[in-house]
Amino acid sequence: MAATELDRRERNKARTRQRIAAAARRLFEEQGFTATTVAQIADAADVAPRTFFRYFEAKEDLLLPDLQGSYEAIAREFGRRPASEDPLTAYESAILAVGPAILLPGALNPGDPVLAGRLAHAFVAWKARLTDLIAARFGGTRHLEAAVLAGIAVATTRAAMREAYGREAAGEVADRSDLVRQAFAVARAQMSR
User: Fold this and answer.
1) CA dihedral 158, 164, 166, 169 (to 10 degrees)
2) Where does 67-191 sit in CATH, by number?
3) What angle do CA 32, 34, 37 make, to 5 degrees?
4) I want to staple 29 with a disulfide (CB 3.0 to 4.6 A). Which of 54, 95, 107, 109 is the partner?
């Protein structure tokens, strides 16, 4: 098979995957995760249900399909911050540079048990990675301090995202960047007591 044929197939696969993910996001926003079925997602993406399962094992895989990429973007921004900057400020700045909306799409309810489980798993993995990134800023030492700071950073971010969701669910406008700034200000104030 020619290389151009393989390239075309890969592009078609990528487009199908994106179409399924976009249909799922739209349906989750319109009717909620629980009420949305795989059949509805497949129909909205104009694919057969069996095609859906070639790309995703379950609809839960579509809850946060881009979260790993979001973490990678934050990690890159964190790495670009000055070494003299304290880790919490560097992390806050990285999130603000990337855009806090990437961490939790507005229509997804972080209180939903399935989503909460996925988020908890994702945040545990991210905390471990962030611990390593912070430890690297310390020259590979002070691992306990790095783990504590990573825990504070992740918990602070989660609090800001939950607050944003709560406000948005109540019909209010939530400036996620401002909420991230406020949450980190609270964390710093509590740490300095």
Assistant:
1) -130
2) 1.10.357
3) 95
4) 107
